[in-house]
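Morning!

This is the sequence you dropped in the shared folder:
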Amino acid sequence: MEYSDKQHAHFEEHGYVRLGKVLDDAGLAELQQRIDAIMLGEIPYPEMEFQLDGEDADYAKMPTVSSGHKGTTLQYRKIMGLEQDPVYLAYMQHPLFRQITRRYVGEDVSIFRAMFMNKPAEKGTILPWHQDVGVGWGVGYNPTTTVWTALDSATVANGCMQIVPGSHKHGVITEGHFPSAEQLAEYAPRGAEIDLEAEAGEAILLNNLLLHRSGINPTGQSRRAFSIAYMDGAARSVRTGEGYPMIFGAEALVPA
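The structure's back. Tokens below.
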């Protein structure tokens, strides 16, 4: 697969671009089975961060994210630290993503996070409009390059992502992650959004400044996805001064 100049132009103009079905059926099944095994505790990763889905759809009432498995269930909302798993790490180092990160980031590429996101069947959280940037990230600058992959088909019916194309051009709307009602009236007026449906196995490149949100999943099937936020390998945490997991270039992690 090649990342084309046409895709680059679309990404620059709209803040997102479809990369196509990066995963074939076998690769998709491997990632699906692996994340289920991690959720069920069959493959333990004590240092991964887990968050269970909430009892209702209110984002403000979500359980906290913390290290360690929270029990044998497929009702997890978020799991972070998937670069620790060799199957997910190998996918993160896909040759297409090497092309993309070389173009937008450079030779030495780290990640802010490698995150599984889930809207369990007949559940899920209403995620309000936001940008994936801000002081809460604790990085010296705002990363802008995220690859989002559908592990299940994402549809309007099961709470797919909505975006406001072009909203990345406004820069950081608020360092608080979630814009105010007044800011949303300006930057995400009603009718400006589109539904970003995707086939299972399809990847989409997103600018972190792009406004996006998602709804609940009232269907009988889960909606799972995997998100990788790539950034400059020189990035350091403003809190600790430590670097982040290296994916490409010098000192890149190697799948076990």
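Headline: The helical segments are 5-14, 25-39, 86-92, 95-104, 181-187.

More detail when I'm at my desk.
O.
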